[in-house]
Specification:
Layout: H1 2-10, H2 13-21, H3 26-30, H4 32-40, H5 43-53, E1 59-61, E2 66-68, E3 83-86, E4 91-95, E5 98-102, E6 110-114, E7 117-123, E8 129-136, E9 141-149, E10 156-159, E11 173-177, E12 186-190, E13 202-204, E14 212-213, E15 226-229, E16 234-242, E17 249-257, E18 265-266, E19 276-281, E20 287-293, E21 300-306, E22 314-319, E23 333-338, E24 344-348, E25 361-366, E26 374-380, E27 382-385, E28 393-397, E29 402-406, E30 414-416, E31 424-430, E32 433-438, E33 441-445, E34 453-454, E35 467-470, E36 476-479, E37 484-488, E38 496-499, E39 508-514, E40 520-525, H6 533-542, E41 553-558, E42 570-571, E43 582-585, E44 588-592, E45 598-601, E46 609-611, E47 618-624, E48 632-638, E49 644-649, E50 656-661, H7 663-667, E51 673-675, E52 681-683, E53 687-690, E54 693-698, E55 701-705, E56 711-715
Parallel strand pairs: 1-50, 2-56
Antiparallel strand pairs: 3-4, 4-5, 5-6, 7-8, 8-9, 9-10, 11-12, 12-13, 13-14, 15-16, 16-17, 17-18, 19-20, 20-21, 21-22, 23-24, 24-25, 25-26, 27-28, 28-29, 29-30, 31-32, 32-33, 33-34, 35-36, 36-37, 37-38, 39-40, 40-41, 41-42, 43-44, 44-45, 45-46, 47-48, 48-49, 49-50, 51-52, 53-54, 54-55, 55-56
C-alpha cells in the first residue's frame, strides 16, 4: 500500500480535489496543456501508454468518455465560519468569503461584506460591530484589514498597519474595541484556534487603523482572551505571569487595565496552573475565564469566575489529567459564550502544540454557570448561543466547511453546507446498496444513490473508528484493523459484533469486502511490504534485528454479512498489505496483493489469477456478480498525471476497456481521492451498481454511467 499511497500524494489529483471542494475550476487552467497533449495523441499511442501501466491486463483504449455536467443547486447555506456573533436582530459570521448575516437563526445567510477573508468579529463596547481579516493574497494571506459597521449590514473596509509578529494581524487574532469611531481603542491577542504559537498583544488608539505592541506591563506572549467592560474604559486580557509571591509563576492569569489598555496589572486571585485561553464578561460585573492544556501537554481544564467586575476571581472547576466520570475530556477551553448566568457554551480543543489552524474542537454546554460541562457530538472553531434559554446555538466548522445548529441544548445537531462545498470522505457499496460519508455526516442508500437517509449512528459512539461497507439492502459491515467487526442486517438500527478468526495474536485485519448477497470476506495476517531480497538485506544492515513481515495472509468468508465466519480460512498464495483494497460479490473476489497487482478469483478464493499493474499506478476495485454472467469489475486508477483511468470488464476480468478522464474531469468535481480520517488519503472510485452501470462520488455530487463507462452524467442528490 505504501508505494501506491506515495504515488497518490504526488499526484495533482489532491490539488484538484481541494479546488473542486472550494467550488473552483483553476485546476483545469493549470493543467490545460497536459490535457491537450493527452487528448491530441493518437489512439494507438494512448494504447501503448496504457499497456505500460497495466501490463497484465488484456486491455483496449476506449478514449475519453463524455461528461454531462450539472450545476449544483442554489443554496443560502454557509460553508463554515471562523467566528460567529449574535446581535439583537441577527447573527453575523466571519468567513473566508467575507462577512455574512442571518436573520433566521442561521438557516439562511446573505453576504454583507465580500472581498475579505474575515477571521474575528466583535461587538464594540459603545455600539457597532467590527471584523478583522485579510485581503486575498497570492501567497498565504494579503494585507490586514479592519471592517466596521454601525448596523451589521453596511460595512466600511480599511487597510491597517501593525508591527511584524509570529502571526500577522488579521487571521489568527481575537480582538475587542471600545467603539468604531476614529478615537476608539482596540486590543488584539493571538487566537489558539488558529495556531499554538503566540504573538505579542497589540493596541490601537485610532479606531483600529494603526497598531503597536503593548508595553512592559504585560508579558511578551501567551495572550488568548480579551474583552472591554464599563463602556470601553476597562479592559481585560489573559496571559501568563507571576503569582501572588515572587517565586510563584502563573501559567494563566487575568490582567486588568483601567485606562483602555495603556497600563496593566495582574489580578493575583486569577492565577492558575494552566493557561487561560478564553475570557467573557456577560455584564460589567459577571465574567468567566477558562483554559487548560491540550492533548499533547497531557490535558487539563480550568474555569474561574468573577462577580465584582474582575477585581477578584475564584476557581469553580479544575480537572487534571484523566477523564473523571461525568466530565468531558480534560482539554482546554478556547471559546466561551455564556448566554445567561447559568447557561452557556464553549469549545474545548483548538490547536495543539506544533499545529497550525484553524483547528476545530468539541462543543461543550453548561447549565450551572460553568461548574460542570457536558460534551456534545459537534466539532467547531466558532460558536454563538442564541437567546438566554441555553437551548439554541450555532457552531461553525471552517476546516470542514459546515455550519451546525441545535435547538435542544446540544443533544442533536443539524448540519448544513452549500452543495458545491460538500466533500466526500468515504464511499462504499455494491449493487443498489451504498454508504456515503461526507462533511455533513453519513448516509445510506438502497436504490443505487437515488435517495439517501441519514446514518450518523455509523460514526458516533463506539463505532466512530469503523470503516463501513454496504451490501444488500439493510446489510452493513463495519471493520478496522482489529479482528472484531460490527454487522447490521437492518440498515444500522441494531448491531452485532463478531470476531474474524486469527491464527496469531499479532495478526491484523488487512482487508474486508461485502457483496450484494450478503457474502463477506476478510483477509488477515501480519501484512507484507513486497520487499525484494536485496531490500531485505539492506534493511537488516540498517536495522539489526529487524525481520520482514512473513507475508502469509488468510482469507475468511461469511455467508451472513459478517455475523459468522468460517473457522478454517484459506491460505492465500500471495501477501497482502495493511489496509488493502478488496471487493467481493458472490464467488467473484478481487484484491490488491502486497506488490500492488490485482488478484482475481471466480470461485470464492480457492484459485487466483494475477493481473500485473505498474508500480506507478494506484487503483481501487469494485465487483458485481450478476446471475448467469461471468461478473463485472471496475478499476479506478490514478497515475502521476493530472487525470485518472476508469477500466471496466464485463467478463470477470478476462478483457478490459480503459477510459481516460483528463484534467477537465477534476475541474468538474471528479477525482479519485478524498480526505479520510486524520487527513489520510482515502481512495474513492467507481462502484458497480448494475450490469454496465457504476456510480462515482465527487464532492456533493454523483457521476453515473449505464454504458460501461463510455459516458457519465452528474447529479446532485439531496443529503
Amino acid at each position: 500500500m505504501s508505494a501506491r499511497i506515495d504515488a497518490a500524494i504526488a499526484s495533482s489529483a489532491i490539488t484538484a480535489l481541494a479546488l473542486s471542494i472550494a467550488g473552483c475550476s483553476g485546476s483545469a487552467s493549470r493543467s490545460a496543456s497536459t490535457e491537450a497533449s493527452l487528448t491530441s495523441v493518437t489512439a494507438s499511442a494512448q494504447a501503448r501508454h496504457l499497456h505500460k501501466l497495466f501490463p497484465g491486463l488484456h486491455v483496449r483504449y476506449g478514449g475519453v468518455p463524455g461528461l454531462a455536467k450539472a450545476a449544483p443547486p442554489a443554496s443560502a447555506a454557509l460553508p463554515g465560519a471562523n467566528d460567529l456573533l449574535a446581535t439583537s436582530t441577527a447573527v453575523l459570521a466571519a468567513t473566508d468569503l467575507g462577512v455574512f448575516r442571518s436573520t433566521d437563526g442561521g438557516a439562511t445567510w446573505r453576504p454583507v461584506l465580500t472581498g475579505v477573508e474575515a477571521w474575528s468579529l466583535t461587538a464594540a463596547a459603545s455600539g457597532g460591530y467590527a471584523a478583522i481579516g485579510n485581503l486575498p493574497g497570492k501567497l498565504n494571506v494579503g494585507p490586514a484589514v479592519l471592517a466596521t459597521s454601525a448596523d451589521g449590514v453596511h460595512w466600511r473596509v480599511r487597510k491597517i498597519t501593525a508591527p511584524r509578529s509570529v502571526i500577522p494581524l488579521g487571521g489568527g487574532y481575537r480582538f475587542a474595541m471600545s467603539g468604531i469611531g476614529p478615537h476608539a481603542t482596540a486590543i488584539a491577542v493571538s487566537d489558539t484556534t488558529w495556531a499554538f504559537y503566540s504573538s505579542p498583544a497589540l493596541r490601537s488608539t485610532d479606531g483600529g487603523l494603526t497598531w503597536t505592541r503593548i508595553g512592559r506591563t504585560l508579558p511578551r506572549g501567551g495572550f488568548n482572551g480579551v474583552t472591554f467592560t464599563d463602556g470601553g474604559r476597562v479592559a481585560f486580557v489573559t496571559a501568563p505571569g507571576r503569582g501572588p509571591s515572587a517565586s510563584q509563576r502563573c501559567s494563566g492569569a487575568v490582567y486588568r487595565s483601567t485606562d483602555a489598555g495603556a497600563a496593566w496589572s495582574l489580578l493575583p486571585s486569577s492565577c492558575e496552573p494552566y493557561p487561560l485561553t478564553a475570557l467573557q464578561f456577560r455584564n460589567a460585573r459577571q465574567g468567566l475565564a477558562a483554559g487548560g492544556l491540550g492533548y499533547k501537554e497531557g490535558g487539563g481544564l480550568v474555569v474561574e469566575s468573577t462577580s465584582d467586575g474582575g477585581r477578584t476571581w475564584s476557581t469553580i472547576l479544575r480537572i487534571k489529567t484523566g477523564n473523571p466520570a461525568g466530565t468531558p475530556a480534560p482539554v482546554g477551553i478556547v471559546r466561551l459564550d455564556m448566554v445567561s448566568a447559568q447557561d452557556g457554551w464553549a469549545i474545548a480543543g483548538g490547536c495543539d502544540g506544533g499545529q497550525n489552524g484553524p483547528c476545530a474542537g468539541s462543543v461543550l454546554v453548561t447549565t450551572d454557570g460553568g461548574h460542570r460541562w457536558q460534551g456534545t457530538s459537534q466539532a467547531a472553531n466558532s460558536l454563538t448561543g442564541l437567546g438566554a434559554s441555553g437551548q439554541v446555538a450555532l457552531a461553525g466548522d471552517d476546516p470542514i466547511t459546515t455550519m451546525a445548529s441545535t435547538t435542544d441544548g446540544g443533544r442533536t445537531w443539524t448540519r448544513q453546507a452549500p452543495p458545491r462545498w460538500i466533500s466526500t470522505t468515504a464511499f462504499a457499496g455494491t449493487g443498489s446498496s451504498q454508504v456515503w460519508a461526507t462533511n455533513l455526516g453519513d448516509f445510506l442508500s438502497s436504490d443505487a444513490g437515488s435517495t439517501w437517509a441519514s446514518a450518523d449512528q455509523l460514526s458516533t459512539g463506539r463505532y466512530a473508528n469503523e470503516s463501513w461497507l454496504a451490501g444488500r439492502p439493510g446489510r452493513l459491515l463495519g471493520y478496522s484493523q482489529s479482528m472484531d467487526v460490527v454487522t447490521s442486517a437492518d440498515g444500522g438500527q441494531t448491531f452485532t459484533t463478531s470476531r474474524v478468526p486469527d491464527g496469531n495474536s499479532s495478526d491484523s485485519l488487512l482487508a474486508a469486502a461485502l457483496g450484494t448477497s450478503g457474502r463477506a470476506i476478510a483477509v488477515t495476517g501480519g501484512g507484507d511490504d513486497c520487499l525484494s531480497s536485496a531490500q531485505v538485506r539492506r534493511t537488516e544492515q540498517l536495522k539489526p534485528g529487524w525481520k520482514p513481515s512473513s507475508g502469509a495472509s488468510t482469507l475468511y468468508t461469511s455467508d451472513d454479512g459478517g455475523a459468522h465466519w468460517d473457522s478454517a480460512g484459506t491460505a492465500l498464495p500471495f501477501g497482502v498489505q495493511l489496509v488493502s483494497d478488496a471487493a467481493a460479490d458472490g464467488s467473484l473476489v478481487a484484491i490488491f496483493d502486497a506488490c500492488d497487482n490485482l488478484e482475481i478469483s471466480t470461485d470464492g478464493g480457492s484459485r487466483w489469477h494475477e493481473e500485473a499493474i505498474s508500480k506507478d499506478v494506484f487503483c481501487t476495485v469494485s465487483v458485481l456478480a450478476p446471475p448467469a454472467a461471468r461478473g463485472e469489475l471496475w478499476l479506478t486508477c490514478q497515475t502521476g498525471q493530472s487525470g485518472f483511468w476508469v477500466l471496466h470488464s464485463a467478463d470477470g476480468g478476462a478483457t478490459w476497456t480503459a477510459f481516460w478522464l483528463p484534467a477537465s474531469a477534476a475541474a468538474n468535481g471528479m477525482t479519485l481521492y478524498g480526505p479520510g480520517p486524520s487527513q489520510a488519503i482515502n481512495p474513492i472510485g467507481a462502484f458497480a451498481t448494475e450490469p454496465g452501470g457504476a456510480v462515482m462520488p465527487a464532492g456533493g455530487s454523483l457521476w453515473r454511467t449505464t454504458n460501461g463507462g463510455r459516458s457519465w452524467r452528474q447529479s446532485w442528490p439531496g443529503i
